[in-house]
Structure of DUF3649 domain-containing protein:
Amino acid sequence: MTKYLNKLKVAENSGTKIGLFRTICSIFGGLIVAYLSMTFLVFIIPGTAGESIIVSLLLNTLTWAIIALWISLSKTKYIALLRCVVPSLIFGILLIILYNI
C-alpha cells in the first residue's frame, strides 16, 4: 500500500496531459462533493426544505464544475485523490451531525 501511495505522489513528466485517473476523480469526486455540499446547504438555509432545494438545485451544476476543475488541476494523482476524499468526509460528517440534531 505504501508503494502505491508513493507512486501516486510522483508528479508526471508532461504537464499537458490530465490523465484518466484525474479525469475520473474530477468527474465523480466533483459530483459527490457537489451533492454533499448542496445537501449541507439545504440544512443550513433557514426556511422550508422546498425553498432551500431551489437554491441548491441552481448552484449544483456550478459547484460541480468548479470542484471538478479544482480536482483536475492538481499536480499529482495523490493530491487529486485527497481533493476528492477530504471534502467528502468533511461534508459527510457535518451532514451526520446535522441530521442527528
